[in-house]
């Protein structure tokens, strides 16, 4: 009997180690092993700087954006089981795509909830991309070798907006139809825009072909590009040495050691970072013996914080989706837009701009803003190089005094867009005339 | 000297090899790109036809108007024999304008037109299109929504 027990134990051990390859004790070696023997965890470093887990460093904005992307991918795939990208009129007199929305709302178990989750997460993602970008800029984290990652991030931001745009065509309601109608008319104003419009719509006007094309872009092409660029974005953060931080953090207030509990360091080098040598790279990284006392194991303190943020996001979205239904306007009517015909809030700033002039407001200003923001770090470098102002860059510090002008301009740009959005949402009524929200009940907008 | 010549020869050979390799790959990529572009370009249109017919007996009374929703056209009869058709597609970004007392208003970006489709406010760059009208056999007129005439272009129907 004892022998049998022993054998079962040996087998259990072999089974366990074939899967996990480590125990969960409190030694540094185990903590390292946990991090690099798990495919999900190994994306992150074994040891991170203590300031990385402080709320004020990132406010978790990028992480939340990434989680929203994951939630969108999951709910999106689930929604695909109940959707057809077809404008054919069904027996109920509604276009197929639209009646699928009605079906989700009224018949499918969890259908409405799933659609709400997807829609609110999409809105949230646009907002958090904007906030994340603001945080990165104001903390100067786009400089010091990270300029190209800023560009990648900007492309990810544009992809987010384009995913939202292709996504809201799919219900084939009034918002969908007129949003795409106007958007592609704007494209026509750009040089070479008629060709782009033709390729996007697959027809001379918004119709069944456009729905199929936007569907493929939304569920396959754009998410694939996005997934790849997210990988690039994260990879470059790792290769640039983790989150941007000042060269010397010894004077910063950190989370005290005792809050991280007692870590047994069983490595030979008691004070050095001592995980496996994975690769040899040029330069002096990994920087052994530099700021060792400021480094901490990512497991479990970072991972627990990340899981907590994930749970928070899911909880918040779930509550939101239970109590607030995603908007659905009447079925698309190619002859009559709603009055007023308002885009979702993140496009209302642009709509406000185009209501002054189609070309300047729809192409020139957005083009300059998007292009300018994308190459912003290079503009900074250019000006610094050619005016020979070599200032000390302190990445990872909020509102650095040396960057006062840049920060003020960047915040100004945000306030400009925000003002336009507020005007578009609250101060535009029937026939796009100026109204006051306290005098009229609002219809449309805010989708 | 001999060494340098050898080096030159080597680099020339490299240039030719690499040049032709990358050149061919570039050519293939360009051809694929062009083909893909063509593949994605629409070949058939499923949209509404550009021209439509109206029987003369269905025309509005003199001094009156008739709106054709599906074609986004308002048909206006000036006299017994003169009619005009004005497009209801906003010249700004293609929304359908609403007919109101003072003319036409666009619900998307607030363009305002007078009754002749002349811009009086908002972002619209041009007058609403005045369309071609042609009398066709069988007592009908044919309206071409693709045309753009100056405002006040009426057509004789008799």
CATH architecture of the largest domain in chain A: Up-down Bundle
Q: Quick one: CATH superfamily of the largest domain in chain B?
A: Rieske [2Fe-2S] iron-sulphur domain
- Which regions of chain A contain 5 or more consecutive residues with pLDDT less than 50? 272-277
Return the structural class of chain B. alpha+beta
At CATH level 3, the topology of the largest domain in chain B is Rieske Iron-sulfur Protein
So, CATH architecture of the largest domain in chain B? 3-layer Sandwich
Number of helices of chain B: 1
Q: How would the global form of chain A be characterised?
A: globular
Q: Give the integer mean of the pLDDT values of chain A.
A: 86
Give the H and E element order of chain B. HEEEEEEEEEEE
Which assembly state applies to the chains in this document? Answer: heterodimer
Q: How would you characterize the overall build of this protein?
A:
Chain A has 15 helices and 2 strands. By secondary structure, chain A is mainly α. The longest helix of chain A is centred in the middle third of the chain and has 32 residues. Chain A is globular and about 80 Å long. Chain A starts with a helix and ends in a 21-residue tail after the last helix. In chain B, a hairpin with a 4-residue loop joins strand 2 and strand 3. The model of chain B has no long low-confidence stretch (mean pLDDT 86). Chain B folds into 2 domains: 41 residues; 106 residues, Rieske [2Fe-2S] iron-sulphur domain (Rieske Iron-sulfur Protein, 3-layer Sandwich). Chain B contains 1 helix and 11 strands, in the order H-E-E-E-E-E-E-E-E-E-E-E. Chain B is α+β, with helices and mostly antiparallel strands. Chains A and B meet through helix 8, helix 9 and helix 13 of A and loops of B.
């Amino acid at each position: 009997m004892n022998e049998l027990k022993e054998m079962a134990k040996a087998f259990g051990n072999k089974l366990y180690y074939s899967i996990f390859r480590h125990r969960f004790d409190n030694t540094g070696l185990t903590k390292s092993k946990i991090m690099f023997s798990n495919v999900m965890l190994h994306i992150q470093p074994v040891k991170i700087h203590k300031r990385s887990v402080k709320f004020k460093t990132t406010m978790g904005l990028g992480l939340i954006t990434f989680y929203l992307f994951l939630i969108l991918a999951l709910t999106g795939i689930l929604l695909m089981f109940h959707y057809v990208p077809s404008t054919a009129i069904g027996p109920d007199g509604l276009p197929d795509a639209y009646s699928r929305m009605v079906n989700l709302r009224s018949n499918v178990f969890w259908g409405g909830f799933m659609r709400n989750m997807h829609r609110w997460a999409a809105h949230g993602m646009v907002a958090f991309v904007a906030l994340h970008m603001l945080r990165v800029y104001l903390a100067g984290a786009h400089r010091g070798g990270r300029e190209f990652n800023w560009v990648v991030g900007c492309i990810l931001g544009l992809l987010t907006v384009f995913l939202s745009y292709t996504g809201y065509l799919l219900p084939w309601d009034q918002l969908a139809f007129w949003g795409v109608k106007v958007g592609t008319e704007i494209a026509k104003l750009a040089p070479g825009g008629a060709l782009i419009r033709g390729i996007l719509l697959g027809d001379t006007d918004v119709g069944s072909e456009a729905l199929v094309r936007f569907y493929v872009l939304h569920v396959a092409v754009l998410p694939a590009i996005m997934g790849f660029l997210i990988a690039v974005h994260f990879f470059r953060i790792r290769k640039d040495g983790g989150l941007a931080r000042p060269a010397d953090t010894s004077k910063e207030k950190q989370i005290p050691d005792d809050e991280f509990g007692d870590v047994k360091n069983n490595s030979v080098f008691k004070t050095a970072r001592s995980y496996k040598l994975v690769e040899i790279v040029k330069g002096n990284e990994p920087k052994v013996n530099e700021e060792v006392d400021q480094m901490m194991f990512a497991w479990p303190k970072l991972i627990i914080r990340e899981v907590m943020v994930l749970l928070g996001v899911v909880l918040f979205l779930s509550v939101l989706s239970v109590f607030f239904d995603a908007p659905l306007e009447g079925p698309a009517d190619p002859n009559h837009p709603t009055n007023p015909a308002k885009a979702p809030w993140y496009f209302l700033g642009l709509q406000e701009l185009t209501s002054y002039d189609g070309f300047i407001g729809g192409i020139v200003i957005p083009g300059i803003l998007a292009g300018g923001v994308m190459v912003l770090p290079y503009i900074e470098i250019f000006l610094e190089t050619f005016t020979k102002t070599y200032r000390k860059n302190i990445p990872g510090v909020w509102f650095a005094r040396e960057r006062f002008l840049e920060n003020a301009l960047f915040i100004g740009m945000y306030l400009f867009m925000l003002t336009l959005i507020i005007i578009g949402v609250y101060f535009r009524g029937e026939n796009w005339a100026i109204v006051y929200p306290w005098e009229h009940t609002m219809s449309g907008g805010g989708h | 000297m001999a060494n340098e010549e050898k080096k030159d020869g080597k680099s020339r050979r490299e240039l030719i090899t690499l040049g032709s390799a990358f050149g061919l790959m570039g050519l293939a990529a360009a051809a694929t790109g062009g083909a893909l572009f063509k593949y994605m370009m629409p070949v058939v249109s499923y949209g509404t036809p550009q021209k439509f017919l109206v029987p003369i007996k269905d025309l509005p009374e003199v001094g009156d108007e008739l709106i054709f929703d599906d074609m986004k056209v308002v048909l206006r009869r000036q006299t017994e024999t003169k009619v005009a058709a004005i497009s209801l597609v906003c010249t700004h970004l293609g929304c359908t304008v609403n007919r109101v007392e003072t003319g036409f208003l666009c619900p998307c970006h607030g363009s305002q037109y007078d009754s002749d489709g002349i811009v009086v406010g908002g972002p619209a760059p041009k007058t609403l299109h005045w369309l071609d009208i042609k009398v066709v056999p069988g007592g009908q007129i044919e309206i071409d929504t693709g045309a753009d005439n100056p405002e006040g272009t009426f057509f004789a129907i008799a």
